[in-house]
Amino acid sequence: MRSLERWYLRMTLAMHKTCFYLLAFQFCSLASFANAADNDCGDFGASSSCNSNLCCKSNSGFFADAELTLLTPHSGSVTIAPLSSTAILPERDLGVGGRYWLGYRAETGLGFRSRYWSFDQEAVGGPTLDPSLTAQTWDAELTQLFTRGRYSFDLSGGVRWGEIDDQVAPVLTESFNGWGSTVALSASRQLGNGPFSLIGGARGSLLFGDHVVNIVGAPIASSQEVMPVLEMQLGGEYSQELWGTHAFARAAFETQLWELPPTALGLLDQNIGFVGVTFSTGIRF
């Protein structure tokens, strides 16, 4: 069993490293393309030829963002030993969550950002069968903004705290609580000289913490484990100068994958995914 756990740890570490290299490669490729395709603005701040082109305006200052997440969790099949052929599929509805950002960026593009996300969702099942799922994350990270022409790239890295608590069945719950590292890359491309842009982003996190499985409130398995979390977004943005500040609104399609580790002796093994849409609005001072 220990050899299996070591294999799982090596695989998750390799996944995290691969995700980081992929983000770095994507950033370098997109930055090179943007530099060659459209270099009518400076790297940071304003250009004398900007006029009303938003891509040239300064991105420095404090910023805040509030995001509504409408996501449906999917746990797929749940394998419970020794009943390996038994699949428990909680039917889950759309859940509502909130994500909040606060940060500061200097004229050089270097900045700091704090993010908090909370999700709470109950499954369909009535008063006698009421499985539920809650999740939270908090990130503290350094950011570096690069702009070239109508393209912007925001590279970030820092620490993350994450927690997920899933009531798989009326008497069976699984939870994970831990800290780790997080890296992310987001990009935007302004459409023409107007206020609309295409946006996208990817984030990878690797958390180390406590993994607990309870039956009727009593822990039957508890261990220190590692869990990767992957997130992606793709959507659009509208931005506009408003009362001396820069305001924006975004809508995006979002997916997440939480790779919960298997318990000892293969008692419980499941992954949890989230899929849905997000709507956000924010302001930069």
UniProtKB/TrEMBL annotation:
<keyword id="KW-0732">Signal</keyword>
<protein>
    <submittedName>
        <fullName>Uncharacterized protein</fullName>
    </submittedName>
</protein>
<feature type="signal peptide">
    <location>
        <begin position="1"/>
        <end position="36"/>
    </location>
</feature>
